[in-house]
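As the next step, I needed to go through one protein, both as residues and as discrete backbone shape codes, included below for the reader:
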Amino acid sequence: MAKVEKVEKMGKAEIVWAGLQLVPWDKVIDKAPDILREARCMLPSFKWKNKSNAPQKLTVEILSENIVQLENALEEQATLIESMTEQSIGMIDKIKELEEANQKLLVEQGAVKNKLNVALGLSLISIVIAAVAILR
């Protein structure tokens, strides 16, 4: 309870100072090079309008230009999606044709298999008849 009362009596500056004393500054300083390296690696991924990779003041012209670029990108993406949709429809139609052809082949294969079974049966009957004739 004493700590709570003490904090309640502290001013804003004293609270900030107490909070800063809790930060493990030795660890923060040790990690500073890593933090800077990561920050430098992240900066090139931001696409700033000026070449110095520094932020600039946003103006109506810059925002308008960005809007135009976004609209162009959306149009390109819409065209790509439309093209991919047409290709997908074409592929679906081709798959249906192949399935129908496959079904016909399966039916024909079944007919051929039946004919082979009949021919094999007749051959066996002929062999049995020949064997009976030889044995007589």
In short: The chain has a mean pLDDT of 80. The longest helix spans residues 60-135.
